[in-house]
Amino acid sequence: MTANPDLVRNLHLQAKACDKLGSPFNAGLLTLAAEDLDAGGPTADLLAPWATASLKTAFDDATALRLVGGLHDLVLSGDAADLAGLYPAPGRAADPALAWPAARAAMITHRDRLIDFLDHEPQTNEVRRSVCLAPGFLTLAAETGLPIRAFEIAASAGLNLNWDRYHYQFGAASWGDPDAAVRLDTEWTGPAPPVGARIEVTERAACDRRPVDLTDPSLRRRLLAYVWPDQFERLARIRAAIDLALALEVKVEAADAVAWTAAHAAPKAGAVTCLYHSVFWQYMPAASQARSARPSPTSAPGRRRPPPSPGCAWSRTRGTWPRCRSA
């Protein structure tokens, strides 16, 4: 059977993206997986649900990332020792060409498990996105002088619910707990956020359609599996954030974002109520976007200026204001 050329191209394009974004190991694995798919190898069997998918569908479904995420999950579980010994580790370089035979063998040996993994859409919880959220919260506090009620939609495991418990470096300016295990810096341009603002979070809650239960070791591992294996700093950071979330018993409610927002995020006197997310808005239907955004008027892209108490603000990471880069 001839391989779907759009699916082969999807793997090659994602390989280039991984290489550009700092994961040469995943880039190499995906290049070899594309060749295996074209040859009708075990990659074709695992990706059979996308055998007729368009290039757009393959990208929308993050097919390539599901594949490398599944292999990384096997490595993290300790159930594929031969493959794990060939994966990147601090102080140990890894060659995807040397790892590929073991990866290909794992696709056969652990076929059913990998198929189950690929059947679930990817879920990530990139903690670095808080480096773009925190300046918005600081601005709200500085401009209103009010405590903050923070409500996150599409929160995954809720790691960005703890944005005020991390330490940040915004160019020359810093903010947050100096002893925090989770430390975030960024390529910051323009004026620093108002790091002298007093932050008081009086209420915080979160929802997700399919939240990640961090008390479940397999779901915790799945979250780690979608962090690229040769990006050790990201892995260390998300592990520290997970440890903090577990210690604080962070909970994310399973709920539809629009219905949950209506039930929980109405403004209250004496505080500024902020509804926020990171990289979710574009996935919502237009009607749901309109229903969620209705409570308050926009004052600038990616930023809302709250009216007098009771206030309501809307925050999302868009790379508009302030300019910052969060990988």
What does this protein look like?
The protein is an alpha/beta fold and 327 residues long. The chain has 2 domains: 5-119, no CATH class; 127-213 and 245-316, no CATH class. Helices cover 43% and strands 12% of the residues. It has a 5-stranded parallel sheet with strand order 6-5-1-7-8, sandwiched between helices. Strand 7, helix 13 and strand 8 form a beta-alpha-beta unit. Helix 1 (5-20) packs antiparallel against helix 2 (24-38), helix 2 crosses helix 7 and helix 12 packs parallel to helix 13. The model is unreliable at 295-310 and 317-327 (pLDDT under 50).
Main attributes?
327 residues, alpha/beta, 2 domains, three-stranded mixed sheet, 13 helices, disordered C terminus
The residue-averaged pLDDT reads: 88
What is the 3D shape? Answer: globular
Number of domains: 2
- How many helices? The count is 13
Q: Ends: how far apart?
A: 39 Å
Please give the largest β-sheet: 5 strands, parallel
The neighbouring-strand order within the major sheet is: 6-5-1-7-8
Helix content: 40-55%
Overall strand count: 8
Q: Indicate the low-confidence ranges by residue numbers.
A: 295-310, 317-327
Which series of helices and strands comes N to C?
HHHHHHHHHEEEEEHHEHEHE
- Output the radius of gyration: 21 Å
Broad structural category: alpha/beta
Strand content: 5-15%
